Structure prediction request, 90 residues.
Amino acid sequence: MLAELPVILAATAYATEWSVRQVGVPSQVVQRLLMGGIAFVLVQMAELGLWMTMGLSPDAYVTRLSTPAGSVGLMAQTLVVVIPVSLTRS
Prediction:
């Protein structure tokens, strides 16, 4: 998990920058936080959906988030919220 984290975050930053340019998201912090928040919710929904298609319960998904690996993954996913805001500074 830790080994792939820098690659995933770099890919996320690249995709976010591309999306901001293509969609024309205003550079105001509120709009960028909204963009990041929507992305976070979509990622969580996708992960939960994938988890459930593997026949596992939502409770098991939440329990996994309390493990060390799950906590690191969740913290990395929360960075998705602030990446668009960091692009307002560039």
About this structure: The radius of gyration is 14 Å. The CA atoms of residues 28 and 88 lie 7 Å apart.
